[in-house]
Amino acid sequence: MTKIFYDGLIYAAYSKQSGGISRYFDNLISRLPDDFYPGLTTGREKTGSHPTHPNLRLYRFDLRFRPGRICNWLKKEYFQYIFERYKPQLVHPTYYNLLTEREIKDYNIPVVITVYDMIHELFPNLIDSEGAAKQLKQKAIFSADSILCISESTKKDLLELYPSLEDRTKVTYLATEFSEDYIDAHASVPTQPYFLYVGARGTYKNFDQFLLAFSQVISKPNYSDLLLCVVGSPFNDQEKVRLESLNLSKNVIHYGRATDGQLAKLYSCSIAFVYPSLYEGFGIPPLEAMACGTIVVGANVSSIPEVIGNAGLLFDPKSTNELVDQLLFVLENPIQKDNLIQKGKQQVKKFSWNKTAQETVEIYRSLL
Fold first, then answer.
1. Is 51 left (phi over 0), alpha (psi -120 to 50) or beta?
2. pLDDT tens digits, 38-68
3. Of 27, 135, 13, whose CA–CA distance to 63 is shortest?
4. Up-side HSE of residue 87: CA atoms within 13 Å toward CB?
5. 3-class DSSP state of 195
6. 218, 221, 295, 366: which has the fewest Cβ within 10 Å?
7. Do residues 150 and 171 lie in contact, with contact meaning Cβ atoms separated by under 8 Å?
8. Where in the chain do CATH 3.40.50.2000 domains reside?
9. Domain 180-348 coded CATH 2.70.40.10
C-alpha cells in the first residue's frame, strides 16, 4: 500500500470549474495503480470535478464559511490535522504553496513538484513585477526531491535559471481526453465560417495581435463575413473599445464558458483554432483542437511547436503579417488543410494521460 498526499490548493483556487492544472491532477490521480491510496484536500464545491479512484480519500473544506478570518484559521488547522492523520509516504502538492500555508520544505517525507511554466520569470513586467510568484516557485522547487516539467521547453527554461536542479528534473507531458466522440451534436455553433480562440486573453496571451491580424483578413474581398468565435471570460471595457476601433464588433462573437461537448463541436466546426500566445508551458487547447479534427495555427515559440509537431501552421507571434498569411493559407488551401488535420489526429496519439500517470508513478516509486 502506497499513500500519496495531494495538497489541493488548485482545487480551492478554482472552486467551481476545472482548469488545466486540476484536469492534470484529475487524470493523474484517477490512473494511479490499485495499490496506491491517494489523499486529496480540496475547497472545491461538491458539484465540481474531482478525481475518481477506488482508494481515494477526499478531504473537503467549505471555503464559504463565514466570518472569513475564522474560516481561514479553521482551514489551515483542518488540513494540517488531515495531513498528520493520513501519514502519507510522499507528497505531491498541486501548486507551489499549500492550503495549510506552511512551507513545503517542512515536509519530512519525499516531495514531488510539477513546474507548469516559467511565465513569471520570463515576463515579470507583465504579471509578476514584484517577484512574489517567482520567489514562491523558487522555494517550492528547491524543496522538492523530484521536479516534473510538462514539456521539454519548460525544462529548458527552468534549467537555464537553475542549472543545479538538472539531476532531479524530468519531463512528463500532459495530454487531453478530448476526441471527436466528445462532440455534442446538439450544441450551438456559429452558422457562418469562423476562426476559434479559447482561453484567457490577457498579457502574454497575445490576443490583441490576433484581433489585428483578423481585422486585416476580413478587410480583404470575399472574407468580410468571417467570424471570430471567442470562448472564455466576458470582454472587458478595454477589449470592447478595441473591437470597436478595429470595426470588429459584428465579426466577433463570445461564447462564454462552453461545456466540453460544446467546445468539442466549436473546435470541429471551425476553420482553424488559433493559438497566438507568446509563451506556454505546454498548452492543452492545441491538442484538444487536433483531437476534434481541426487545424491549429500556433505561435512558433516555447512549447507550442513541441505540442503541434508538423501537424499545424506556425508563425512568429510578434509578426501580424505572418499570422495574416497563415490565416489566408488556411482559407485558400483546403487540400493542404485536410492533410494537416489528418496529421493532427496522429500527433495527438503521442500524448496520453495513461503515459503521464505511468511515468509519474515510476518517479514516485523511485523516491520511496
1. beta
2. 999 988 877 778 999 999 999 988 776 666 6
3. 13
4. 2
5. strand
6. 221
7. yes
8. 2-174+352-367, 180-348
9. no
